[in-house]
Amino acid sequence: MRLKPGSYLILGMLDSGVSTGYAIKKAVDRSTRFFWAASLAQVYPELAALENDGYITGSDEPHGDRPRRTYRLTDKGRAALEEWLRSERVPDFEQRDEGLLRVFFADALPAADALALVRRLRARAEEIDRDFQAEILPLASRVPGRFRLIAAREGADYFAWRAAWFRNLEAELAADLDPESRL
Questions:
Q1: Predicted TM-score (pTM) of this structure
Q2: Where are the domains of the chain?
Q3: Which of 19, 68, 81, 117 could bridge to 11 as Cys pair (CB 3.0-4.6 Å)?
């Protein structure tokens, strides 16, 4: 089995002590989703594939009436994670941003509608920036180790920059619609 980045996400979460599919999804939502998201529809099949290939081992541990399966890394899984972390291959950069995709095609809209789109995107960017500052950074600062906080700081810097970028774009487009406002 050739491991994909999503596989390493699972191995890393298990290495950090997260042990169920649901807990992995919750941890992703509170940490990596800003640069590497995962849905439950991705987590559970990946757990099954990793278990089938011997990277992790699982055991059934019901929680009340609900079935629950917990996982842990095997030596093979730990070795794969460490090899990936040490790899000299520089990963490809991929950013998927539907808002920026809409901006890219916004010439198809009248100017006022394009401005309205940018306003919505600015408001969302500011909301994400606030959430990141209020939730993600404080959470990352309480987690043992150094590098989760480093990644969170990069995210905070990015989302602060993004909110400012959308504010500037909104002001530019608003000025284009109302040339009198530049006087």
A1: 0.78
A2: 5-86, 98-182
A3: 81
